[in-house]
Design goal:
binds pyridoxal-5'-phosphate, 395 residues, single chain
Amino acid sequence: MNNSIPFLDLVTQHIEMEEEIVETFRKSLRTAGFIGGPMVEDFEKDFAHFCNAKYCVGVGSGTDALRFALIAAGVGEGDTVITVPNTFIATTEAISQANTLIEFIDINEKTYNIDTEKLKEYLETQCYRDEKTGRPINQSTNQPIRAIIPVHLYGQPADMDPISELAEKYNLIVIEDACQAHGAEYFSRKENRWKKAGSIGMASAFSFYPGKNLGACGEAGAVTTNNEEIAKRIRMIRDHGQMKKYFHDIEGYNGRLDAIQAGILGIKLRRLADWNEKRRTIAYRYNELLKQVDGIIVPYEPEWSKAVYHLYVIRTQRRNELQSFLAEKNISTGLHYPVPLHLQKAYERLKDKNGGFPVSEKTASEILSLPMYPGLTETQQLRIVESIKEFNKAD
Ligand SMILES: Cc1ncc(COP(=O)(O)O)c(C=O)c1O
């Protein structure tokens, strides 16, 4: 009997939906509708509704979504964009590809998202104000800060109230990186209401990479926004800068969402709320089971957050040993992410040395993502936790 526990199981859920998915493919084949068309439009409408956003524009990937959102918001050459070092490199690739500079702010040790106190301190002490625009100018580069990309990492929203407040004060644009947070909710103390990830910033980027909470059977992404002008610009940018075929107002990209992927995403979207609930149940069961286990820190979910647990990430000082031990027991785990971006070879040019972002550096060496997907059973979870306890005893 195969007793391995995968990190993620997509096959079981695809088998359950196989007939519907194949039917979508058949529909595209028989109409030759592969690019644009009703399947894309229907999905965009449904996903905007799911996020409580006015508009959704389907694009080729989450990376496209971030890049297009920055460009559409008018962020460009000579500007600086703030984000965190503990994210997938796509966040910063998009910043560079929009011809802007990257500025990192460290994370909060409990939420793993941007530390809003450090963000405030950076704006107050490392920048001076441009009198005309009100924007902060970085003292060492003399470049204006134009935007912040808070990342809702692992499916937990960043603390958006203080971010929005600082953005308002300093005339900054907020683009949510919601690539891991489909359906996550944030309680705004300021507005006294819950808000969906993807409805808070000027625009938000989603990835539908297959392993995401809502995943395509290939590459896909979307931007959500309440701003009509931004939505209109992104529709142009994703389609070679044209609104009308062969009439190009600007140079754009080939960054459209495939009709087949949109059709598949529509099928999965109907199940997303239920899958997210299952993920939350699994996360709370892990929390309960791991409560008494020495040396393990479980995820922290503040009262203002309804996380959707794209990943369930624990921390332990003996991370590498535990990961190898679990692998011997046929339990797959992941590291998200093992090297903070400022220490990646790709960013040597930034000269952000080791020690510059101590929380990101510390957590990167301690985090371990345990198996997490809606179909993970209680029996499997018990075995995972028993194995962690066994590891502790083996000392
Ligand atoms: C936080 C984050 N940002 C951006 C992306 C980029 O998305 P994609 O892989 O669809 O380009 C991902 C997903 O891979 C992600 O996890």
